[in-house]
Design a protein that fits this description.
Largest sheet: 8 strands, mixed
Bound molecules: adenosine-5'-triphosphate, magnesium ion
Structural class: alpha+beta
CATH class of the largest domain: Mainly Alpha
Number of helices: 22
CATH architecture of the largest domain: Orthogonal Bundle
């Protein structure tokens, strides 16, 4: 209680610009010059030699202290975008909301941003207090204060190997606490996506969310509804491909944040069959991410929405619609419903449909049909999807095993595996006769 009180008083007293940062030596944070990429090092050097200040900032510093390999390196500087641009031949200014510079160093692209302040009195907000534009230059202290969590507000200077820490981020990271900078409620109101980030970062780094930051999430979850869909979608992609998706989804539910984020995710998770399938899909994605294997949003969304498709398809068949056309109608309807709420791009929805459309074809284990399926460009994704369906108990494991054996067998073994074609009831005369010959074709 007293600690909480002191922290509050201290926070008021330490208004951004009034306090200098703690300067933390390498012995305490463990990051050496060699820990950062050569591109990041060169970029900081060039800026510093030109008389500017330049630091590696944000996620990379946090991850290095936590012993995780950073995804990328962001640089913060007091040089303006034009000044940065003039120092690097291979660079360009990007961004509408806020200008930053992309500096190309070999194969690396570094994002260089000028120190900026959170906002001022003129900042545009929507009726819920969400900040619409923030593009005010600021000091380094302002730049630290506008960041979301204390562990994200650390600046590493490669030339001195020190970390500048304005908000006790290093201590929080060592104590495994995720703490928000400033008043949690106002910070969530300014940008509700920070609630999602809190979940993702705490899961990724194994941190406990400080109760002051955690408690308001449940009350404020509905603010997510005002965030543009494309932004939520981007953040959800980061979360689902963080390598900790299962843990994230569990935490999202614990905090009451899963409603409306991935529309129908809550519905799906409430069906016993659906939940098992979705969790299997998420944990296999987690495994792939951690092993550095490629992953695709199409595949994951296909799994997340599959039970909706199954239910829709079943209902259509009950109404007398024909097997395959009913599946295609069901796929379109489910995707249309989602498209309104999820910013699924056309390309991703094409991938999703390919995977779904292949599923009934796995049931045919005879002749040409089975052999042709192997040649489908999306066979691999469709087969991986089938494996998950078998694991969750939706289709027989024996079917999945057959396909596993079939694809690795040589041509002769494949032909031996093919299930003899049943005499088709309503085949046109003449066609059925050629069937056997056709199936044997590829062997010759
Ligand atoms: P990741 O490991 O996914 O890259 P990250 O923290 O680096 O995590 P980015 O989206 O790359 O996430 O953001 C870079 C930095 O920008 C963060 O470390 C943080 O300092 C700041 N930041 C990002 N999003 C917000 C936000 N919504 N509000 C305030 N600061 C933010
Ligand atoms: Mg980052």
């Amino acid at each position: 209680m007293i600690r909480k009180f002191l922290r509050r008083v201290f926070r008021v007293a330490s208004a951004p610009a009034s306090q200098g940062p703690a300067v933390i030596p390498p012995a305490r944070h463990g990051i050496r010059r060699e820990s950062i990429s050569s591109g990041a090092r060169r970029t900081c050097e060039t800026l510093q030699q030109a008389g500017y200040r330049a630091y590696v900032v944000g996620g990379a510093v946090r991850d290095l202290i936590a012993g995780i390999a950073p995804k990328d390196f962001d640089i913060a500087t007091d040089a303006t975008p034009d000044q940065v641009r003039s120092l690097f031949r291979r660079s360009r200014i990007i961004g509408r909301r806020f200008q930053i510079v992309h500096v190309m160093q070999g194969a690396e692209t570094l994002e260089v941003s000028t120190f900026r302040a959170a906002h001022d009195a003129d900042t545009q907000k929507d009726e819920h207090g969400r900040v619409l534009r923030d593009n005010v230059w600021g000091s380094q202290a302002d730049d630290a204060a506008r960041r979301d969590f204390t562990i994200n507000a650390l600046f590493f200077d490669p030339s001195t190997e020190t970390v500048l820490d304005y908000h006790h981020g290093v201590a929080d990271l060592k104590q495994k606490t995720l703490r928000i900078i400033g008043d949690p409620r106002s910070r969530y109101r300014e940008d509700p996506v920070r609630m999602l980030r809190a979940i993702r970062l705490s899961a990724k780094l194994g941190l406990t969310i400080d109760p002051e930051a955690r408690t308001p999430i449940r009350d404020m979850a509905s603010l997510m509804e005002n965030v543009p869909v494309a932004r939520v979608f981007d953040e959800m992609l980061k979360l689902l491909f963080s390598g900790h998706a299962v843990e994230c989804v569990k935490r999202l539910r614990d905090e009451g944040l899963h409603h409306g984020l991935l529309p129908l995710l809550d519905v799906i998770l409430e069906q016993p069959m659906g939940e098992k399938f979705v969790l299997l899909a998420l944990s296999s994605t987690d495994l792939r991410v951690r092993q550095g294997k490629p992953t695709s949003p199409g595949f994951l969304f296909a799994t997340l929405l599959w039970n909706e498709v199954l239910a829709n398809w079943e209902a259509r068949k009950k109404r007398g619609e024909t097997h395959i056309p009913a599946l295609f109608e069901a796929m379109d309807e489910v995707l249309d419903q989602q498209a309104e709420k999820l910013a699924i791009t056309r390309r991703i929805s094409g991938d999703i449909k390919d995977i779904w459309a292949l599923q009934p074809r796995f049931e045919k284990r005879s002749g040409k049909v089975a052999l042709r399926l192997l040649e489908q460009p999306r066979f691999r994704a469709g087969y991986d999807f089938l494996l998950l369906r078998a694991q969750s108990g939706e289709v027989a494991q024996e079917l999945a095993d057959w396909w596993t054996a079939f694809q690795s067998a040589d041509v002769e073994a494949r032909l031996a595996m093919l299930v003899p074609e049943k005499a088709k009831k309503r085949r046109r005369p003449g066609r059925a006769k050629t069937k056997e010959g056709n199936a044997a074709e590829p062997a010759g």
